From TrEMBL:
GO terms for cellular component: cytoplasm. It comes from Candidatus Levilactobacillus faecigallinarum. NCBIfam families: deoC. HAMAP family: DeoC_type1. This is Deoxyribose-phosphate aldolase. The active site is at residues 94, 158, 187. Belongs to the DeoC/FbaB aldolase family. DeoC type 1 subfamily. It is found in: Cytoplasm. GO terms for biological process: 2-deoxyribose 1-phosphate catabolic process; carbohydrate catabolic process; deoxyribonucleotide catabolic process. Keywords: Cytoplasm, Lyase, Schiff base. Signal peptide: none annotated. InterPro entries: Aldolase_TIM (IPR013785), DeoC (IPR011343), DeoC/FbaB/LacD_aldolase (IPR002915), DeoC_typeI (IPR028581).
Length: 229
């Protein structure tokens, strides 16, 4: 696949989810996103008011993660976090699936959790992505997680938080795209550090990329590999 720098930038959710992120580092993330006109800036919900202010004169959307990074949060708490973030400016919400309940086969509970978030987010006219944490799942579980996300009316399925044992894998992205077809978006996130890796994820079926190495990907300069995105 051949994309211009400008086209590739619009696949990217420029991400800063580090626990030690400061206002200065979040501002730098926003400035980079505006420079390259990425799709969004993705941050923990605490930073949404600040990010919304930083991005107000741009085409870059603020995104909040909720129930992050473990997904083991009461649905009511996730909904409160999501709605609060939306009211403060978030245009999209990336939630983490309840991995333990999925692996235990408690599909009704997983479905209810996602559907609760989807209803709340869609009532605000916004987009919901479901992080599957594919590194902790086998292929059957990935397929089931995608099917449950679609049944719950989510808008995207997403590979990873970037904080587990591994990030996005090409085979997982392909499997997710095969499962949801063109009905849902697929976001590849975690461990994407070069332009070649980014393009390979898009070729595999990703319609969005979650990365912190945005500048390296778009300029070709080497990025240091670190934990997280």
């Amino acid at each position: 696949m051949t994309l211009t720098t400008e086209q590739l930038a619009k696949y990217i959710d420029h991400t800063n989810l580090k626990a030690d992120a400061t206002e200065a580092s979040i501002k730098e993330t926003c400035d980079e996103a505006k420079q390259f006109n990425t799709a969004s800036v993705c941050v923990n919900s605490y930073w949404i008011p600040f990010v919304t202010e930083q991005l107000k004169d741009s085409d870059v959307n603020p995104i909040a993660v909720v129930g992050f990074p473990l997904g083991a949060m009461a649905t009511e708490s996730e909904i409160f976090e999501a709605v609060t973030a939306i009211d403060q400016g978030a245009e999209e919400i990336d939630m983490v699936i309840n991995v333990g309940e999925l692996k235990a086969g408690n599909d009704d509970k997983v479905l209810a959790d996602i559907a609760g978030l989807a209803d709340a987010v869609h009532a605000k006219g916004k987009i919901l992505k479901v992080i599957l944490e594919t590194a902790l799942l086998n292929n059957e579980e990935i397929v089931r997680a995608c099917q449950l996300s679609e049944k719950a009316n989510a808008d995207f399925v997403k590979t990873s938080t970037g904080f587990s044992t591994a990030g996005a894998k090409l085979d997982d992205v392909k499997l997710m795209r095969e499962t949801v077809g063109d009905r849902l978006g697929v976001k590849a996130s975690g461990g994407i550090h070069t332009k070649d890796e980014a393009l390979a994820m898009i070729d595999a079926g990703a319609s969005r990329l979650g990365v912190s190495a945005t500048v390296a990907i778009l300029t070709g300069k080497a990025a240091a590999k670190s934990a997280g995105y």
